Amino acid sequence: MRLGELARLLDCRCDGDEGIEITGFASLEAAGPGDLSYWADRRRAAQAAETGASALIVGMDAPVFARAEDLGPPLAWLRSGEPALAAAAAIERLRPAWRPMPGIHPSASIHPTAVLGPRCHVGAFVAIGEGCRIGADAVLHPHAVLYPDVMAGDRLLLHAHAVVREGSRLGDDVILQPGAVVGGDGFGFVRRGDGTHAKVPQVGTVQIGDRVELQANACVDRGSLDATRIGAGCKVDNLSQIAHNCHLEENVVLCAQVGLAGSTEVGAGALLAGQAGVAGHCKIGAGAIVTAQSGTHGDLEPGKMYSGSPAFDHAQWLRATAAFSRLGDLQRELRELRQALKKLERR
Amino acid sequence: MRLGELARLLDCRCDGDEGIEITGFASLEAAGPGDLSYWADRRRAAQAAETGASALIVGMDAPVFARAEDLGPPLAWLRSGEPALAAAAAIERLRPAWRPMPGIHPSASIHPTAVLGPRCHVGAFVAIGEGCRIGADAVLHPHAVLYPDVMAGDRLLLHAHAVVREGSRLGDDVILQPGAVVGGDGFGFVRRGDGTHAKVPQVGTVQIGDRVELQANACVDRGSLDATRIGAGCKVDNLSQIAHNCHLEENVVLCAQVGLAGSTEVGAGALLAGQAGVAGHCKIGAGAIVTAQSGTHGDLEPGKMYSGSPAFDHAQWLRATAAFSRLGDLQRELRELRQALKKLERR
Amino acid sequence: MRLGELARLLDCRCDGDEGIEITGFASLEAAGPGDLSYWADRRRAAQAAETGASALIVGMDAPVFARAEDLGPPLAWLRSGEPALAAAAAIERLRPAWRPMPGIHPSASIHPTAVLGPRCHVGAFVAIGEGCRIGADAVLHPHAVLYPDVMAGDRLLLHAHAVVREGSRLGDDVILQPGAVVGGDGFGFVRRGDGTHAKVPQVGTVQIGDRVELQANACVDRGSLDATRIGAGCKVDNLSQIAHNCHLEENVVLCAQVGLAGSTEVGAGALLAGQAGVAGHCKIGAGAIVTAQSGTHGDLEPGKMYSGSPAFDHAQWLRATAAFSRLGDLQRELRELRQALKKLERR
Fold first, then answer.
1. B-chain residues near C273 (CB < 8 A)
2. Same-domain status, A277 and A164
3. Contacts with C, B 96-135, CB within 8 Å
4. Residue B58 belongs to a domain with what CATH number?
C-alpha cells in the first residue's frame, strides 16, 4: 500500500514521499525497506536515526532528524495526534495476527443443544457443554472448554485451555488467553470449632462485559451467591486473581499477578500495577493507581496514586522509601543525638 | 420446604412463621419472597432491613429490627449458634451446585488397567493413565488428566484441565479447580562451575489428604525424593505455589497467590493471607497467621500473627508501618533536631 | 550396581566396601539397605548418623562420623568435589523418572503437514498445528498443544496442558511443566481519550534457547513486534510471568511467582527469588541476585545482591529492615528527644 493511502487510513499527516510502497510494519531495530515503524520514546532517538524503515509514525511535535548515512532514502514521517493508536492500527493492517479459518474440527465435542453463531472456528478437542450459546465469528482454539449454560456475544476468542465454567455470561469481543479460568469456585469456607472448614457452596456466576481480555492463566472466580462482575473494557494480565463477588467497573487495568480478594470493588479506569494486592471488601476509587507490589486493606480515593504495603499517598511513599534505605543510618544518628543531648544535659 | 422443617434440619431456632414455604437461598440484595438469606455483618443492617427475603439466618444474639415497609410480610428468623455453618448447609440444600450425571463420555481416554469406582462421571477428553485407581462418585470434568499410577479416594472432583501427575496419592473428597497442577517437577537444579544448571531429577510424589481443595491454577510440586505432603482439610486458593518437599499439616489455609519455597513445614491450622511467601526450609507454627504480602525467611511461632517482609510481630508491625508513612518527616525532624542541638552546644 | 562401579561412573572416591550392591537412591530418612543417599547440610548430621542407607555421597571434606548403632553395616562414603552434581547423576541412574514409550496415541490430532522426529511419544488429545516441526525423542504428554508453525529441537518435553502458540521457536532439551504457556499475547494496550483501551496487536514471537525449563503454569508472552527471548539454560519456576519483549540471557533463574514486566533485560546468570518483580524496560545485570518479594523499577548492577521494594543494596537493606521493626520505638525516641531538647533550650 502506498504511504499516502496509509496516511489517510490512519488519519496521519504525511511528511515525505507519499508514493513509497509500504509492505510491513516492524520495530525500529528490525525494520527494513518497505517497512513502516513507530517512534515515540525520545530516549530511543539513536535507534530511530539508524532504523532501516521507509517511514515512521511519530507525534505531531516529534523532532525531525537526519537518518544515519547509507541507510537508504530519506525517512518519510506519518505525523499523528495519537501516534500510539495510529501505530496499533497500522500493525493490525500491515501485520495481521494469525487467525484460523471458520470451521469445526471433527474432534470437537459440542453438545447437541449448544448454539453457535455463523463463521465460528472450533478447534481440536474443544468441549462445549449443554445449552451454551455463542455469537458470530468466534474462534475457539484447541482444548478450550465451555461448561454448560455459558452465553457469549460475538467475536469470542478463546485460546487453548481457556475454561469458562457453568452459567457464565460474556459480552462481545471477549478474549481469553491460554489457561485463563472464568468461574472457578470462590475461596469460601467456614471454620468449625474443631479447626476444620466447611465449604460454602459457590453457586453464583460471572458476568464479563464487552471487550474484556483476560490473559494467560488469569483467574476470575464465580460469585458465592450473586455474580462476580467484570465491566466492559477491563484488561487483566497474566496470572492475576479476581476473587468471588468482586466488581470491576469499566476499563479497569490489572497488570500481571495482581490479586483482588473477595468482594473488592474497583472503580472505572483504575490501574493496579504488577503484583499489587487488595484485601477483601475494599473499594478502589475510579482512576486510582496502585503501583507495583503495593497492597491495601483499606479503601482508596479516586484519581490518586498509591504505593507501599500497606499503601498510602505515592509522593509521600517516595519520600518514605528514600529515607528507608538510610534507616540504618537514621537509627545510628538518633543514638548519637541522644548521647550528645545527655552530655549536654550533664553540663 | 417449610421453614420449620428447615429450622430442624439446620439446627436453628425459628422465630416467626414456621409455615412459610422456602424455595431458594439468595443474598440480602437479591432475595425475594420464598428466599432464605443470611445476615451476619452488622454493618449491613440497612441491607438486611431492605431485603426481600422471607427469612434470615442470624446469630443467637443478632438484634431484631423492623423490615422496611412495603417489603411484604414480616421476616422470620432462623437463629443459630453457628449461623455461617447453618447458611452454608442451607445453600447446599436450597441452591445445589450443578453436577453432571454419572457416566463416561465416549471421547474419554481411559487406560484399560485403570479402575474407577461406581457412579463416576468422566467428561469429554478426560485422560486417565495406566494403573490409576479412583474411588466412588468421582466427577472428572472435560480435559482433566491423570498420569499413570494415581490413586484417589471417593468423591474426587477434578475440574477442567486439572492435572495430577504420576504416582500421586489423593484422599477422599479432594477437589481440584480448573488448571490446578499436582505433581509438577520441583525446582531443583545444581549450579555447575560454568554457570549452567544440572537438573536434579524430581522422583518423589505428592500425598494429599482428605477434604483438600486446590483452587484454580494452583501448583503443588512433587517431592524430589520423598513426598510433598498436604494434610487433611487444607484449602489452597488460586495461583498458589507449594514447592517440592513441603509438608502442610491439617487444615492449613493458603489464600491466593501464596508461595511456599521448598521443604517448608506449616503447622496445623496456620493461615497465610494473599501473596504471602515463605522461604525454603522454614517452619511455620501451628495456628500462626501471616498477613497479606508478608514474607518470612525464618521460622514463625505457633499461634502468633506476623506481618511485613521480612515478617515480625503483627502489632509491632502496625506501629512500624504507621511510623513508616511519616518516615520522610521523621528524617527531616531528625535533621532539625541535630541542628538545634549543635546550636545549643555552641552556646 | 556395585558401589565401586558407581563411584567410577560418578567420578567419586569410594571410602568403604566397593562391593556393596546399590539398588536405589533415597533421602537420608527414607533410605534402607542397598540405598545410596546424599548428605551435604551439616545441620542434618543427626539424620545422616541415623540413616539406613548403605552409602552416602558427601563432599571431599565432609566429616566422618559413626553411624548410630544397630543400623547395619558401616556406611560407605562416596566423596566428590561436586557432591550435589554427583547426587543428581546418581538419582538419574538409580531412580529414573517415569517416561512414556515412543508412539503416537490414536486420539492425538496432528496436522498432516507437521513433521515429528524419530522416537517421539505423543499422548492422548495432543494437538499439533499446521507446519510444526519437532525434533527427535520428544515426549508430548496428554493435552499438550502446539499452535501452527512451532519449531522445536530434540528431546522436547511437554507436560499436560502445556501450550506453545504460533510461530514460537524452541531449542533442544526444552521442558515445559503442566500448564506452562509460551506465546500468549503481551499486555499491550493504548489508552484512548475516552478511557477505553485499543489492543496493540501482538505479532512477535518467542525464542527459547536450549535446556530451558518453564515450570507449571508459568507464562512467557510473545513479543509485540520482535521476539521475547529466553536464553539457553534459563530455569523458570511455577507461576512466573515473563512479559512481551523481555530478553533473558543465558542461565537466568526465576524462582516461583516472579514477574518481569515488558522489555526487561536480564543478564546471564542472574537470579530472582520468589515473588520478586521487575518493572518494564529495566536492565538486571549479569549475576545480580534479587531476593524474595523484592522489586525494582530501575536498573540493577551486575553481580550484586538487592533487596526491598524498591530494591537497594542487600547489606544496607538488612540494616534498614532491622531498624524498621523498631520504627515505632524510633519515632517515640525522636519525640522524647525533641522534648528533652526543648527543655534544655528553655534553661
1. 279
2. yes
3. 107, 109, 125, 127, 129
4. 3.40.1390.10
Residues of A in contact with B210 (CB under 8 A): none
Closest-CA residue of A relative to B85 is: A190
Same domain, B311 and B167: yes
> What is residue C145's predicted lDDT score, i.e. its pLDDT?
98
Q: Could you tell me if B33 and B52 are in contact, meaning their C-beta atoms sit under 8 angstroms apart?
A: yes
> Rounded to whole angstroms, how far apart are CA atoms C170 and C246?
16
| Of A285, A99, A147, C72, residue with least CA distance to B139 | A147
Residue A322 included in any domain: no
Residues B144 and B234 in one domain: yes
Distance CA A224, CA A203 (A): 5
pLDDT of amino acid A342: 86
CB contact burial C115-136 (16+ within 10 A = b; e otherwise) = ebbeebbbbbbbbbbbbbbbbe
Is residue A186 predicted with pLDDT exceeding 80? yes
Residue A69 belongs to some domain of the structure: yes
Catalytic choice (C121, C244, C247, C314)? C244
Is C244 a known active-site residue? yes
> Which range of residues forms the domain containing residue A51?
3-94
B228 burial via Cβ count (<10 Å: 0-12, 13-18, 19+): buried
pLDDT at B163 over 80: yes
Q: Which ipTM score applies to this complex?
A: 0.96
- pLDDT < 50: residue spans in chain C: none
Question: pTM for this one?
Answer: 0.97
Specify the DSSP class assigned to residue C205. Answer: E
Q: How many domains does chain A have?
A: 2
The whole-chain average pLDDT of chain B stands at 96
Q: Which subunits sit against B, judged by 3+ Cβ pairs under 8 A? A: A, C
Give the pLDDT score at A247: 98
Are C295 and A309 an interchain contact pair (Cβ–Cβ within 8 Å)? no
pLDDT above 90 for A341: no
Pick from C147, C161, C195: CB nearest A268: C195
CB contact under 8 A, B323 and C309: no
Segment A314-330 shows an average pLDDT of 93
As a whole number, mean pLDDT of residues A145-166 equals: 98
Residue B68 has pLDDT above 80, yes or no: no
A68 has a pLDDT exceeding 80: no
Check residue B344 and give its pLDDT: 85
d(CA B221, CA A277): 25
Task: State the smallest CA–CA distance between residue A300 and chain B in angstroms.
Answer: 15
